[in-house]
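Dear support,

I submitted the protein below through the web form. The confirmation email said the job was done, but the results page showed an empty box. After a refresh the structure appeared. I'm attaching both so you can tell me whether what I see now is the final result or a partial one.
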Amino acid sequence: MVTIASTLAGTAFLLHLVSFRLTTRVMDHWCRPPAAFANMSVAEWRRLGTPLEADGSRNRCSQYDPPDGGSRGHVVPCKAWDFDTERYGNNIVSEWRLVCDRRWLIEMAVLVYMAACAMSLPLAGAAADRVGRRVVMHISLAALLAAGFATSLANSYLLFVGLRIVVSTTSNAFWLVLYVVLYEVSEDMGHSGVAMGSALERL
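What the results page shows now:
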């Protein structure tokens, strides 16, 4: 039973990490046309208002100013974007405009998630020694379920990242305590197997 619970805890951590990659797929995007050009089709607007790249594709982060100035117009950064949601749907990239000069925020969220994971290890161990493993497991599981659900309802990037910190910390703490229990209840000859299984689970 402890083995199953430990595996599920590690899997939950990894699923939250992988799911973030799925929700941050960058779909095709382009500068949103000004109101005067809003009635144009996407293809017409991109031909008219966005500069060409060296490979012949249309720039996703810049547009001409004025849009109908063609190559004589000044190239300026996009102020807003439209997104092609047909393939990936509406995800956090389109919701919070994580493209162009804001694309680094995607990698920042991953970095924060992994940093929270690393920092939670000594804290979870100390808490388990102080208040007991069962208490840490119960609190971690409750917080993980609440934060995991709340993440789907987050209405801002900062709130989303904050909730993912909670998810990372609690899922890792829950897994760590269960792993220690599993290690202690296994036979001496099984210790290496527990360690190997834990390592493979995280790969």
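Response: this is the final, complete result; the empty box was a page-load delay. The chain has a mean pLDDT of 82.
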